[in-house]
Amino acid sequence: MLTGVGFEAFRRARIEWGVIEVGMGGRLDATNVVQPRVAIIMPIGLEHTKYLGSTVAEIAGEKAGIIKPNAPVVIGCQTQEAAAVLRKKCAEFGVLPTWMGKDVPVDDKSDPWTLTVDGTEYPGLRMGMMGAHQRWNFAASVTALHRAEVPLDPGIVRRVAWETNVPGRLQVFDGTPPLLLDVAHTPDSAERLVAAIRERFPDHADRGTTLLFGCSRDKRVDELARVLAPMAKWVILAQIPGIRSMPMDEMEPSWRTVHGNVETCASVAEGFSRAREVTSADGLIVACGSFVLVGAVMELIGYDPG
Fold first, then answer.
1. What are the distances in angstroms from CA 251 to CA 51, 112, 244, 255, 293?
2. How confident is the model over 7-63, as pLDDT tens digits?
3. Is 133 contained in some domain?
4. Are residues 182 and 105 both part of a single domain?
5. Is there a single domain that holds both residue 248 and residue 206?
6. Helices 248-258 and 221-228, packing angle to 10 deg
7. Which end of the chain, N or C, is surrounded by fewer C-beta atoms within 10 Å?
């Protein structure tokens, strides 16, 4: 119903373009009533396994449901099993996909860097967002606009690359200590978070951070803990609000298995207060694990993402 209300709001506003993000999966998601001008499928990992399947191939099959006849598809880097599923679905509909990295090379080392799509160069790009994966996301977005035949000005593309900042995605708030918010809640996104910290805060990458963590009950907390624990000096677990919150007695054992300095707090407010108490002025606080947790921290610091 919310999706339907959203589409009606878009119609009344007479939007020129709608950028529609799938809620979960694709094949059976409410957004899949849309016939897209272009579809984008970025790297697929194990997420929402209770609903989408227990293997990457099964999940890729659900994601592939947004591929439609006569609509171009831009595909991010995939595992072999995911790529095979997507390739088969494209062939079924006679769609020629554009593979990021293969058809459109992405330079994730140079700064500034140049993106070339269909012979058009976009030079002098600098990303305002942290993380090499944001270059891939940005490059896929530009490529998708090409496939949708939207004319682009290289100067505007360059400006958007630098000025775009997505709240809660590797978002840094300066202070003593600084605060990093990231909605990472899968092992794959947690690995990207750790990589970004090693790049931006190398002095804090190995047990130099205070980690404030909370997640929903359907998350792979064992794997998340294994990925995130090596960078943390302190781990503070906070109970996030809502019926989907993972109970502390389920979350805590996973962390105590991999880290020797774990505290628990009954709320995000209590956890954030404790994080500020134990973190030195030259340290780093990282809050991650859930959109709900990051949103709660934003409220505590008085930040309005709108």
1. 21, 41, 13, 7, 14
2. 999 999 999 999 999 999 999 999 999 999 999 999 998 788 788 999 999 999 999
3. yes
4. no
5. yes
6. 40
7. C
Domain hosting 182: range is: 171-301
Helix (H, G, I), strand (E, B) or coil at 265: strand
- Helix (H) or strand (E) holding 235, with range, is strand 232-238
Is 5 part of any domain?
A: no
CA dist 225 and 217 (Å) reads 14
Give the 3-state secondary structure of residue 238.
strand
Residue 282 lies inside a defined structural domain of this protein: yes
Per-residue pLDDT reduced to its tens digit, 91-141: 999 999 999 999 999 987 888 999 999 999 999 999 988 888 889 999 999
**Domain boundary, last residue among 163, 195, 220:** 163
Beta bridge partners, 287, equal 181, 212
Q: What is the count of structural domains for the chain?
A: 2
109 Ramachandran zone, left/alpha/beta (phi>0; psi -120 to 50): alpha
Distances in Å between the Cα of 99 and the Cα atoms of 62, 105, 124, 167, 193 are 19, 9, 23, 28, 24
d(CA 135, CA 140): 8
The partner residues of 100 in beta bridges, in order of sequence, read 104
Nearest Cα to 66, choosing from 101, 93, 102? Answer: 93
Q: Give the bridge partners for 115, in sequence order.
A: 122
Domain end point (choices 146, 163, 180): 163
